[in-house]
Write a structure and sequence with these properties.
Length: 90
C-alpha cells in the first residue's frame, strides 16, 4: 500500500501570502531609503554598519507585513458553516 502524500494546500496558501508581505516590506524599505524619510538613508551612509540598520528595518517590516497578510488571508477564508449553508440551500 502506497501512503498518500500530505495535503500541503494550506502551507502553500500561507507561503504565497507571506511572500506578498515580504514584497510589500521590500517596497516600503526601498521607498523609505530612496526618499530619505526620517533621515534614515543619511544616517545609514554615515554609519560603518548602515547596511545592517537597513537590513533590520526590512526584517522588521517583513515579519510584520507577512503576519498581517497571512492573518488577513486566514480570516477571509470561508467558514465551514458558510460552505455547508451554501451547499444545502433549499
Amino acid at each position: 500500500m502506497v501512503a498518500k502524500p500530505p495535503d500541503r494546500r494550506l502551507l502553500r496558501f500561507l507561503a504565497e501570502h507571506a511572500a506578498i508581505g515580504v514584497m510589500v516590506a521590500a517596497a516600503l524599505t526601498y521607498l523609505i531609503v530612496k526618499v530619505d524619510a526620517f533621515g534614515i538613508a543619511s544616517m545609514a551612509e554615515r554609519s560603518a554598519n548602515g547596511w545592517l540598520a537597513v537590513l533590520l528595518l526590512f526584517a522588521g517590516f517583513a515579519v510584520t507585513f507577512s503576519s498581517v497578510a497571512m492573518g488577513t488571508a486566514i480570516f477571509m477564508l470561508p467558514k465551514d458553516e458558510d460552505r455547508w449553508r451554501d451547499d444545502h440551500r433549499g
